[in-house]
Description:
Layout: E1 4-5, E2 33-42, E3 45-55, E4 59-64, H1 71-78, E5 86-91, E6 94-96, H2 101-107, E7 109-112, H3 124-129, E8 135-136, H4 143-156, H5 172-185, E9 190-194, H6 202-217, E10 221-225, H7 229-235, E11 238-243, E12 246-252, H8 258-266, E13 284-293, E14 297-305, H9 320-327, E15 335-340, E16 343-344
Parallel strand pairs: 4-10, 4-11, 7-9, 9-10
Antiparallel strand pairs: 1-8, 2-3, 2-5, 5-6, 11-12, 13-14, 13-15, 15-16
Amino acid sequence: MSGSATASPPAKPDLPSSDGAGLTPDAQCPYLLEISHISKGFPGVIALDDVQLRLRPGSVLALMGENGAGKSTLMKIIAGIYQPDTGEIRLRGKPISFTTPLSALQAGIAMIHQELNLMPFMSIAENIWIGREQLNGLHMVDHREMHRCTAQLLERLRIKLDPEELVGNLSIAERQMVEIAKAVSYDSDVLIMDEPTSAITETEVEHLFSIIADLRSQGKGIIYITHKMNEVFKIADEVAVFRDGTYIGLQRAESMDGDSLISMMVGRELTQLFPQREKPAGDVLLSVSDLSLKGIFQSVSFDLRAGEVLGIAGLMGSGRTNVAETLFGITPSDSGEIRFDGKTV
Length: 345
């Protein structure tokens, strides 16, 4: 008798029978996931109105639409967070309904949220296997086995992290990779990724895309929500567009370009995406010179003129918020000068 026992991930439940019972997505039903006539309302607003969607195995389906189009609401319904008012979800050709995120996970649907759901004071291994901890012969948590399984999982995904590292010590990008590893650990057939590149560098984006390519080659279906069109045309097989809670249409990514995609999203043809606007620059209202805060940001300089809109861009954790807090007097700077309307403040 073995000295240890490994707790397997929750088994996928038996699904209700249907006309295509027992068939793979490649037989009678060519789709891994089908959404039909889904509607969802909240007090005072219709978030989704009779929408539909379908996902093929081994493909990436990009979901596009302006903020408030209903993308995230639909994904939360698929992931069991919300329940629809009307409509049907079919998984592998069989109708199914989810009352909790756990029931969706057990059926083979995992969602990677834009807001990361990790415990900062727990290790990577503990975060990945929380609720599914491996047990030894004494029915106690087998940390060595959890470490081994986590190391194998991270190696398979080419993620170079120590399973025992506390999540709180990781960068935002590294935490994103842990979320992906956690979703993959469920051996889910459908993975939903909500803005996964919003806070990672270009190098990390390429790594993510290579992981997506591997998952696609394994027959997984991936729903990818993004606002970045270059990503859509780089990794998506199909693109579905939503507008104001309604489903507009689905096309092969290779048959579209940026202009046609924008037109579907906004409902009209745009002749100029960024039209030139001639406006003379006003006087300098705010001048920042060599502003620094040790360990946070260094030598920040800019001028803001009357009539201008100045954007401060950067990844999460790059110091954008800290600069703003320094400008508003919340956090004193170590060095540098701030002048407002010609006067040092």
